[in-house]
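Fold it.
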Amino acid sequence: MNGCGKTTLLDAIQLVLYGPRARCSGRGNRSYDTYLRESINRAADPQRGAELRLEFSITVEGRPRTYEVARTWFAKGKQVRESLAVTVDGKYDDTISETWAEHVEEILPLEVASLFFFDGEKVEQLADPERAADVIEAAVQSLLGVRAVEQLRTDLLALQRRQRLSQEDQGILEQIRDLKVKSQAAAQEVSDQSQLLAQATSHLDVAQAQLAKIERDFERAGGRLYEERRGLEAAKEATAERLAQTQKDLRGLAEGPLPLLLLRGELAALQEQSVREQEAAEARQVIGVLERRDAWLVDQLPDGVPAADRTALKRKLTADRKKRAAATELALDLSLPPDLPQKLAALDEVLETDAARAAELLRSADKTVHELQQAERQLAAVPDEQQIKTLIEDRQQASEAVIVARAAVEQHRELVAEARSRHERLEADLERARQKMVRTFVREEELQRVVAYADKARTTLDRFGEALLRKHISSLEVAVLRSFQTLMRKSGLIKDLRIDTNKFTLALTNRDEEPLDPARLSAGERQLLAISLLWGLAKVAGNRLPTVIDTPLGRLDSRHREHLVDRYFPHAGRQVLLLSTDEEIDEHLLQRLRPSIAHSYVLVHDDTTFTTRVAEGYWWTEGALHAV
């Protein structure tokens, strides 16, 4: 029945083989991670995930090999983790598992998978010339060996282009001469720069000796004390500025609320009075609420309550209110603002902060005054400037001479290093060029021979590729036409079928030898044409791959269905899997197909657990009914 999982089986085969490249019917425009997440059964734990396993046997290098491909995935937060494991003849193969995307292309390329795994309802679209051209080209290129020829031509062309290295070898002798000249110039430059470096080093030694003599004279004359005077003056100025700033900050604090610290007691009393007035106001509000509540409470008393009890309750409630009212009376009422307690509390915090800041500034001021006095005493001991003015000028000139001489030495040292490095590099290049010169003649002869043979091979491959394409296209035309005529009940509808070797498009001719547009065919006839195309391609390829057909009979009428059952399904491949609805392969068609059937199964869906299980038999048989 529809919705039991036929198309899911077809999608599962493609998904386990091709992963994110699989052309699954239900994926649409969704990302691969989203598709995998939605492919986990809704009743299953997403963290345990889902798994697909496909086992198949093929012949590799003349030996039968059994592959098992297992693709598992599970959800982890917003991500989906996927893994793939491939075993060959029961042994896990790490290399094939890691390169499965490339390995499966050698078994069944994705471009031609639609020839063997297809939906019968959608296969009609292949009757369109452009869609058919894509399938024909992919099949011819992949299955019939034309792509291998084209790849060989491309490889040979790449090989020829790599042989251009011989042109470089021809310039080796000129390169050697040029490198010799440059190497000699670099060696001379190393010698010249080394001499200049020696002269600069000698000048530096003289300048450093002169500077050392002047430094000793400068120290004996008290120059060190004079140098410290500038630092002391700067320190004195900085200290005086700090003192002025501290005093300014103290005046700024005095201009604020700080003087209110003298009224701490009065402020505390004002705080207490404002709190009492606020509490009294709140109590009066409560008394008003209680009066209304008491009146309402008396009204709620049942009529059966005695008058004496009612009167007693009223007296008790009235006495409670009077007692509360007495507590709200104040000896003194200044009518202070309601928000005064909050303002006084904020003022208290400000005063605490300002008091701490003022104490800190006073301590800083005392320390700064002490530092200022110390700096003044130190400045009084500095010698007069006129006593050492000449020595200062001589010392400055000597220092500048040392700096200039040292810079000259560093510059010449860098120039020597650059010249030596350039000379070593040129000598290495020269040695490599000399070694290449020995091999140049042998390599040139070798490469010319490779180019010549590659040209011959490419010419041969061009002719071979064209002949191979014509041969396969011719065989394909015959196979597709015969397949279509075999399946059609109108045996004379199409007389000829041609395939353009350049565009790979189909051209049909009717029995009057006039062109026939595929669009003029009925939906069923277009479906048969598309199936004939797939069948013909499989025949010409000679590939013993299985065929999986979902909804195999689609829109076909009864005669066309019988033709497919009798003539196509038993011969579509060595192994054929039909995913049919109960309206397609009915009891009548099943009897016609039974001689070719190995196994029959029914897919049974459980709507409560959202799962499908496989039972032996067909949908109307006793086994299937019992399974249901």
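Residues 228-380 form one domain.
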